[in-house]
Amino acid sequence: MTERAEQIYEALMELGFSEEEINSKINVKLQEYQGFMTKEGALYLVGKENGINIYSSDPNIQNEIEELIDYNDFAINISDIIEGMQNIVITGRIKEIFKIKKFTKKDNTLGFVGSFQICDKYDCIKIVLWNQQVKNMENKYFKKDEIIQVIGGYSKKGIDNDLEVHLSNKGKLVLAPDGVILPELIEQNRPEKVKEKEIEKKFSFRIKNLQEKEGFIRYVKGIVHIDELRELTLKDGEKSFLLKLILNDNTDSIRINIWGLKAIECIKSINDGDNVKISNLFLKLNSYSNEKELNFTKSSRLEVI
């Protein structure tokens, strides 16, 4: 931990927060940033929210926090995108730039929508920008064949029923990103199943290796065992569900938590002892058991294989 981070930690404790409470707040921030943020960056944000002014006079603090977020570690191939994914990070080369369109919003103000297509080694996809985001396309360096990184996108079907990535309100575009070496562009006439297997192989984790990881996990496989399904009453009185699974491979085992209606969907689709593949999970440390656990996200998928 750096000297600045130690000062923030000490200041939080002086405000009356216990070590457990601070770590809990850090974990909330880590989950909010879906694995993009380091623990130190999360600590800075927790301090800022609690009025700690150790770094308030430093105009470069936002840049420093940004540097603590390593987006490249979470970039995926375009061909790995499925409908409903959040916090997408992809890198590609601009291949087509479409005309910016104007429209009238419900409040009668003028709105703008712009889009462009990017490609990587395996696939291409349309990126959609709204209103103020369209200004990115006015940058003189925004042109065909330039490498661009899309950070914080979400996927959905467009009006033509093709999959698109829309830039979220907190998302951003980075032209000619540092440290990115883009491989050759999409290979034509490549069998889809071959591409899918390569993607899965690249991003799959053995369970024992998860102990060294944190944040977004693309794929895991193993034998699933149903631990328990619980019905919960939330603070607002609403009912919810929690399904706990144990996943084993020949290296180790790990718990998987599934909340809400997804818990019911999953319990209906699996049997104890099924061999499964699960994608788009979030890995974090359970502060009570001190063990790593996998948690379902909005874009998680479970498939019996």
Question: How would you explain this protein's 3D organization?
Answer:
It is built from 6 helices and 12 strands. By secondary structure, it is of the alpha+beta class. The chain has 3 domains: 67 residues, no CATH class; 103 residues, Nucleic acid-binding proteins (OB fold (Dihydrolipoamide Acetyltransferase, E2P)); 113 residues, Nucleic acid-binding proteins (OB fold (Dihydrolipoamide Acetyltransferase, E2P), Beta Barrel), CATH 2.40.50. Strand 2 and strand 3 form a beta hairpin. The protein is globular, with a radius of gyration of 21 Å. The chain starts with a helix and ends with a strand. 24% of the residues are buried. About 3% of the residues have low confidence.
